[in-house]
Specification:
The complex is a heterodimer of chains A (330) and B (86).
Chain A lengths: L2 E5 L3 E6 L2 E6 L4 E4 L4 E6 L3 E2 L2 H9 L3 E5 L5 E5 L8 H12 L1 H27 L6 H13 L6 H22 L17 H22 L19 H10 L1 H13 L8 E4 L2 E4 L1 H16 L1 E4 L4 E4 H18 L11
Parallel strand pairs in A: 1-5, 2-6, 5-7
Antiparallel strand pairs in A: 2-3, 3-4, 7-8, 9-10, 11-12
Helix pairs in contact in A: 3-4, 3-5, 3-7, 3-8, 4-5, 6-7, 6-8, 6-9, 6-10, 8-9
Chain B lengths: L1 E7 L5 H9 L3 E4 L2 E5 L2 H14 L5 E7 L22
Helix pairs in contact in B: 1-2
Classes of the chains: A alpha/beta (330), B alpha+beta (86).
Keywords (chain B): Antiviral defense, Endonuclease, Hydrolase, Magnesium, Metal-binding, Nuclease
Pfam family, one (chain B): CRISPR_Cas2
Family (chain B): Belongs to the CRISPR-associated endoribonuclease Cas2 protein family.
Chain lengths: 330, 86
Amino acid sequence: MDRNYHVFSDGRIERKDDTLRVVTDDGEKKHIPIEHAEAVFLHGQIDYNTRLIGFLNDHGVAAHVFGWNDRYSGSLMPERGQTSGRTLVEQVRAYDDPDHRRDLAASFVAGSIHNMRANVTYYNGRGHDLSRVITDLDNASERISSGMRVEELLGVEATARRAYYQTFDAVLPEAFALEGREYNPPPNPVNSLISFGNALVYANCVSAIRATALDPAVSYLHEPGERRYSLSLDLADLFKPLLADRVLFRLVNRKQITTDDFRQEVGACLLTEDGRTTYTRAFEETLEETVEHPNLKRKVSYQYLLRLEAYKLKKHLVAGEPYEPFKKWW
Amino acid sequence: MYVVLVYDMEADRTQKMLRLSRRYLTHVQNSVLEGEISAGDLEELRGHIEALLKDGESVVLYELSSDSLLNRTVYGEDPTEDSRFI
């Protein structure tokens, strides 16, 4: 599986000698092996030109751009290698069919609750009493029924997530109190870490969806039609607990990230460049971790699980195979 | 898989090999590159190398099934460290 490359420095990214080169403002030059790249994540202030875009396009490499406080601000996506009118038609049909859309939305909610529960269970067995959160999640899960409207499903998801966030305060040290999820901008370190982690999950899901002929803007649980790639939000929800949250818990509890990795701005708490690098490194290592896949009978990386999710969804829409959302099985 | 690539070219042609292999691997020292590579990319790289070589020049590829099999000690600065975080 190809790798993600992250550019935190300010400078310029360009095509040079048939590969990618980053020239930082300090004059340092670094090459990125284009044949080994899945996507480049641009976190700093970066210049580029049209020659670069053409080159990325030829190699099917995406560039994800992050702005202030590392909020996702857009992607330069390669021209679609996969074009399939049929897939798009089926994707929209499923959205337009209330029952079909509801079923898919319910699958996404069931999957995310399952994966949140997996995290809670892990910490419940490690000296924290989180049985109440588990009960709350189970109750939320049981409330999912076939007669539910999508808005109600979103409500169930929100309730579950609120219960789930209690885990953060139980598991993390006091300096990292969550005090409720808030963003735009995040007011404290934990919120800031959650936002950054979720943005990375989201961007990776955009890449995964792009590998199929699915349109990232047509979604089921989240309402499409806003500026975001809402299908990516649907998929990202399944993977946030596994990727973003686990990395956060691990780094904070091992004191690899401390309050020194943040700076306060007016009403916002921002990760420093050091903090972002530490987090991203752990995140990329996690993406490369592998698990034995029961159906494929081989080891697959977490990053490939994102891809598989997009493939599964496409197969469901085009070939009518039942869609089983990703549920952590190990 | 993980490969180490070393080459010996005519003095004015070394840049050609460097340019080619940089597309796949990380440059660690003069005439030495290394890194993770897929089987498909490795085949592609082999083809390019063979097309580029002239008489009297050579390239040696050391292959390992994974980097965990490689016992690697670096003295001084490691050029591959954090090559994905710039």
